[in-house]
């Protein structure tokens, strides 16, 4: 199987693209708890703005504020977070190997199949006289095939039998 350089380049580039994402450091600047606290602070600020503008009453304000606080309390984690370490080299090797094998399998299925024709490779072309003999044998069984008669006449002109070619035409 002959692989083109474009196909190999595609596999290498896709592997490099995945490697870049595996080795790129993940930003851990904001934890889930910090994110929940920031969101709830924003919700409380919006609630105060609505109360100050007179869109809601004091009872609704107190109820919404208690809902925000209870939601925050239920969303905060009580257990310490576990650090999960990812081994990028192992994952990179696994992904590159998977992409390479999968790509080669797909390519082998899509590649055109070249089946050598054993008859065409072994037989030599007929000489002009052999062709005339085959055409004459064919015309014995099919005397009304005008295309074959025309070809016989042309073949006989080719070898110099002008009289026989005139008769066939």
For the record, the count of structural domains works out to 2
**Multimerization state:** single chain
Residues in β-strands, percent: under 5%
Give the fraction of residues assigned to helices: over 70%
Count the helices. How many? 8
Taking the alpha carbons of the first and last residues, their distance comes to: 51 Å
Rg computed from alpha carbons, rounded to a whole number of angstroms: 42 Å
Overall residue-averaged pLDDT value: 77
Class per helix and strand makeup: mainly alpha
Low-confidence residue ranges:
none
Q: Can you summarize the main beta sheet?
A: none
Strand count: 0
Global shape: elongated
Provide the succession of SSEs.
HHHHHHHH
Overview of this protein structure:
The protein is mainly alpha-helical and 169 residues long. It has helices at 5-23, 32-52, 58-75, 88-110, 118-122, 128-141, 146-159, 162-168. Helix 6 (128-141) packs antiparallel against helix 7. The model has no long low-confidence stretch (mean pLDDT 77).
Secondary-structure map:
Layout (H helix, E strand, L loop, with lengths): L4 H19 L8 H21 L5 H18 L12 H23 L7 H5 L5 H14 L4 H14 L2 H7 L1
Gist?
Helix 1 (5-23) packs antiparallel against helix 4 (88-110), helix 2 packs antiparallel against helix 3 (58-75) and helix 7 packs antiparallel against helix 8. By secondary structure, the chain is mostly helical. The chain has helices at residues 5-23, 32-52, 58-75, 88-110, 118-122, 128-141, 146-159, 162-168.
């Amino acid at each position: 199987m002959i692989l083109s350089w474009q196909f190999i380049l595609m596999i290498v580039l896709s592997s490099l693209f995945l490697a870049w994402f595996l080795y790129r450091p993940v930003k851990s600047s904001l934890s889930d708890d910090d994110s929940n606290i920031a969101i709830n602070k924003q919700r409380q600020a919006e609630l105060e703005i609505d109360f100050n503008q007179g869109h809601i009453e004091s009872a609704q304000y107190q109820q919404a504020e208690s809902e925000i606080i209870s939601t925050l309390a239920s969303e905060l984690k009580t257990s310490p977070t576990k650090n999960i370490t990812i081994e990028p080299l192992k994952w990179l090797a696994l992904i590159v190997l998977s992409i390479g094998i999968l790509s080669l399998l797909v390519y082998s299925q899509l590649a055109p199949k070249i089946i050598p024709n054993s008859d065409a490779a072994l037989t030599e072309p007929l000489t002009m006289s052999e062709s005339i003999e085959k055409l004459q044998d064919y015309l014995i069984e099919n005397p009304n095939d005008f295309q074959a008669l025309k070809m016989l006449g042309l073949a006989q002109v080719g070898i110099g039998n002008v009289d026989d070619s005139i008769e066939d035409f």
